[in-house]
Amino acid sequence: xxxxxxxxxxxxxxxxxxxxxxxxxxxxxxxxxxxxxxxxxxxxxxxxxxxxxxxxxxxxxxxxxxxxxxxxxxxxxxxxxxxxxxxxxxxxxxxxxxxxxxxxxxxxxxxxxxxxxxxxxxxxxxxxxxxxxxxxxxxxxxxxxxxxxxxxxxxxxxxxxxxxxxxxxxxxxxxxxxxxxxxxxxxxxxxxxxxxxxxxxxxxxxxxxxxxxxxxxxxxxxxxxxxxxxxxxxxxxxxxxxxxxxxxxxxxxxxxxxxxxxxxxxxxxxxxxxxxxxxxxxxxxxxxxxxxxxxxxxxxxxxxxxxxxxxxxxxxxxxxxxxxxxxxxxxxxxxxxxxxxxxxxxxxxxxxxxxxxxxxxxxxxxxxxxxxxxxxxxxxxxxxxxxxxxxxxxxxxxxxxxxxxxxxxxxxxxxxxxxxxxxxxxxxxxxxxxxxxxxxxx
Length: 442
Fold this sequence. Notes:
The protein has helices at 10-16, 39-49, 58-63, 65-71, 82-96, 110-119, 147-159, 171-179, 191-212, 230-247, 266-274, 279-288, 302-319, 353-361, 366-378, 386-393, 397-409, 435-441, and strands at residues 2-8, 26-32, 52-55, 74-77, 103-107, 128-131, 165-168, 184-186, 215-222, 251-252, 260-265, 292-299, 325-329, 334-337, 344-347, 413-419, 428-433. The chain is of the alpha/beta class. The strands form four sheets. Strands 10-11-9-12-13-14-15 form a seven-stranded mixed beta sheet. This is Transcriptional regulator domain protein. It comes from Neobacillus massiliamazoniensis.
């Protein structure tokens, strides 16, 4: 049976567990926390027990990012939206008869509240709001989430008689306010939203199970393949490959040599990658005293998987022949690698005509343009130097400067300043993208 983990506070788990019976084919496992700092431990536990992890909201998801990536878990979370805000405010107004200006509110983004008020034409309203929008910046370093600041925010306003009621989006804050006898409610959780969240999780895990049945092909090329005694060496290789195949519930093609092919399914392959369980391959490198180039390909047909494995192998050869290198190309032509090192992801297929048009204008391939976009995103849209771009693209600084010049000529980049190197030398120009280019990236 498929297992889905649900991670949240006691209040959230109590609310959502009422709907587990709607999915009898799924086994649900609850992981409850009182503090965000407990989340890492719970994800470690879930990583061993479930196929998918559903988070109660952005807070839990934010604090779990590092562990999610470590366990390569499929995840989603219950989104916060304007409907939650409007339903909560309506509940307070209907049951408590308290006006908006007498309510203190905390929520992920004040924008959600502003949108609700705008829709019903409420303006020039004095509001007591505390938000935490950084929770959506999952690429940034974790900030301290001090619950006491939010409790104090509501409590101070209430004791100063500026407010009569508190509306909070944080379960731990609600519980503390209740202990202080401050009138408050936790944001109303719409039943439809809870059910839709579970439906989304179930749909995603079923799609994953379909993907797991895809064909996976591993192509292995020996860097120092001997020209003499080739037959004996090939026999030795096959013996080692069969040991690897047993580990992956796979079979070795006896027809292929240099590159050698191993056939399995995506589920078995991803399980091995998740556990970093390809040690047999690295052992093979030591036994034959030669680095390996390894390409992994996924596909819905045998032919597609083989072709993707060959393409992935091509990128390993471009990367390095001095050490064992692994790249993976999936059914959507997304390339990931080198695996277990400084992994990057590239899109080798482009179906966006605007991107293709821009690439033509810049006289570069769509693949290289998308790599440039990846660099901008990873750099978090900060200004950058030609050397930083060169390091990311793994080209010379002169080549990076030529690329930058093309963007400058099209007014897609602008010079934003300069930095002085630590050693003696001329200041280096810093660049950033223009508004014209931003629309392509975002």
